[in-house]
């Protein structure tokens, strides 16, 4: 099962016709029909009811279409993240800190924190 075929399934479900879906995914109608048939054979499910006036998504097809949308979304995110990683726009940032005792860094701060020196306010 390929991401490309999942895209074909989603396009057909959204367009409701092989002609419009084929145009959308830049395939001929026969090529799209073969792609849909291949994924139906692979899954062992009929995803679409075919009629003269178009196609309707079957109950099983609705579940598969929804999952396919999620897979396509994640695939697009993966490609976007890869592009951002290549340009160093995202990645890991590491930081460290050192605990310094107030008395060693600023004796006045230490005395104020202890209440030994009063401040106005």
TrEMBL record:
Please give the name of this protein: DNA-binding transcriptional LysR family regulator
Superkingdom of source? Bacteria
* Residues of the HTH lysR-type domain: 1-58
Keyword set, alphabetical order: DNA-binding, Transcription, Transcription regulation
Q: Which InterPro entries match?
A: HTH-type_LysR_regulators, LysR_HTH_N, WH-like_DNA-bd_sf, WH_DNA-bd_sf
What family is this? Answer: Belongs to the LysR transcriptional regulatory family.
The keyword Chaperone is assigned to this record: no
Q: Does the keyword DNA-binding apply?
A: yes
Q: Name one GO cellular component term.
A: cytosol
Q: Which GO terms describe its molecular function?
A: DNA binding; DNA-binding transcription factor activity
Q: PROSITE patterns in the record, alphabetically? A: HTH_LYSR
């Amino acid at each position: 099962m390929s991401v490309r075929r999942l895209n074909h399934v989603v396009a057909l479900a959204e367009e409701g016709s092989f002609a419009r879906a084929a145009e959308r995914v830049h395939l001929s109608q026969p090529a799209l029909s073969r792609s849909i048939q291949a994924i139906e054979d692979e899954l062992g499910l009929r995803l679409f009811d075919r009629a003269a006036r178009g196609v309707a998504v079957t109950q099983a097809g609705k579940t598969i279409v929804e999952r396919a949308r999620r897979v396509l979304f994640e695939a697009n995110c993966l490609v976007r993240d890869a592009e951002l990683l290549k340009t160093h726009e995202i990645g890991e940032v590491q930081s460290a800190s050192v605990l310094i005792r107030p008395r060693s860094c600023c004796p006045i701060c230490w005395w104020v924190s202890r209440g030994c020196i009063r401040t106005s306010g």
